[in-house]
Amino acid sequence: MTLLRKALGLTASVAVLGLLASALPAQNLDAAAALADSITGFACDLFRAVASPSANLILSPYSIASAFAMARAGAAGETARQMDAVLRLPTNSPQAYRLLMHALSAIRSAAAVGDDGQEALPASIAVANGLFSQQGWSFRPAFRQTVADDFGGEFAEVDFGSEDARTTINRWVESKTRHRILDLIPAGLLERTTRMVLASAIHFKASWAAAFLPESTAEAPFFVTPARTVRAPRMRRTGSYRYAEATGVQVVALPYLGRDTSMWVVLPREKDGLDTVVESLSREKLHAWAGAMRERPIALELPRFTFTFQLDLVGALKQLGMTAAFESTADFTGLSTEKPLFISAALHKAYVAVDEKGTEAAAATSVVVQKSESVSMLPEKPVPFVADHPFLFLIRHQPTGEILFLGQVVDPTSK
Q1: Which CATH architecture has domain 214-303+377-409?
Q2: According to CATH, where is 3.30.497.10 located in the chain?
Q3: Tell me: the pLDDT tens digits for 15-30?
């Protein structure tokens, strides 16, 4: 089996509302933003590798990268080199993760008034990491300290020879995702040779800065393909949004209350243009879109959608060049004196719901360690932005640029 039995994207529901985290000094915020930029590069690479033109998809790049970054803290040699290259990790990644977690938690807790005059709570982002180890099994003190200090890891001992271990981990994931991610670890995945499961969770919930009026929502056709449509509830609102046009796409940013986070919707000009957008997706392209955005009046039409997505990450990560970590010869000597250890599976599960009020999203990532038995003038008329065909979306943390969730909607009626 391989060391990373599973990498699963979790959404955490650690209490953030009611807490006011101190703002990061500019230097620390810069370090967090640099890590977020690296994760963006990894996110684009991974999305291109796994996206299907016929299915909805959502990932939490933050959750996946956090889980693997914890595993990387115990890697050495070629295993570490490949993980660094694929994850695009900076040399100070553990310390940078600590700063990024701090930045994500720095959410204003007081109720705010939206553009429509309604009072509501601003966005809540909650993140959590966990380490579940075999009873009596020891790992290196330096690894444990890194997980605790830099990733804020919670620790628990379990018996992987018992079904209770799976129940314990799944309940942890469920609680951290506010019951949005269920049964992350399936029966039969954990074995008596399993030594450790690393889990990373993120939960996001936010109201739009300007809500859509429910009475403006009406069913309308959505072109799943140029030749096939479905009927889906389509929300409508005209207002001021940050907007950009680039080759083949329109991009609009919908701010959440508090304006620390926003959802970008990337709409291809052509009804069958999503594949082209995904194939060319890159960190540099996201930077260009961000730089081109200006406040414009937009006549926005966007379908409601809710769905859950699950992915086995091993094949995609191998395709990107991370192969050594999944082989019996993997080098995780920084994790434990016990050898050989390697990653046996990597799974991710995520959830998203978008409606007139706002967005809720959750994702879970777990890593199982196992022993081998071997500004411009506004136009007079609003710009039409009609999302009536497949589009890309992402949820972004403004202060750091961290992409919390990245997905595509091919069929808004599919769950």
Answers
A1: Roll (2.30)
A2: 9-207+306-371
A3: 222 222 335 567 788 8
Query: What pLDDT digit, counting tens, does each position of 341-373 carry?
Result: 998 878 899 999 999 999 999 999 987 778 776
Structure tokens at 379: 């136009």
CB neighbour list of residue 352: distance below 8 Å, 6 or more residues apart:
58, 305, 306, 307, 359, 360, 361, 362, 405, 407
In angstroms, the CA 96 to CA 102 distance is 10
Residue 405 pairs in a beta bridge with 395
For the residues 95-99, what does the mean pLDDT come to? 92
Domain with CATH 2.30.39.10 in the chain: 214-303+377-409
Q: Which residues, 6+ apart, have CB-to-CB distance to 195 below 8 Å?
A: 133, 134, 137, 160, 336, 338, 341, 369, 370, 371
Are 400 and 221 in contact, with CB atoms under 8 Å apart? Answer: no
Exposure string (b/e) for 134-153, b if CB count within 10 Å is 16 or more?
beeeebbeebbebbeebbbb
Q: Which architecture characterizes domain 9-207+306-371 according to CATH?
A: 2-Layer Sandwich (3.30)
What's the pLDDT score for residue 112? 55
Q: What is the pTM of this model?
A: 0.89
Name every residue whose Cβ is closer than 8 Å to that of residue 106 and which is 6 or more positions away in sequence: 20, 21, 22, 23, 24, 399
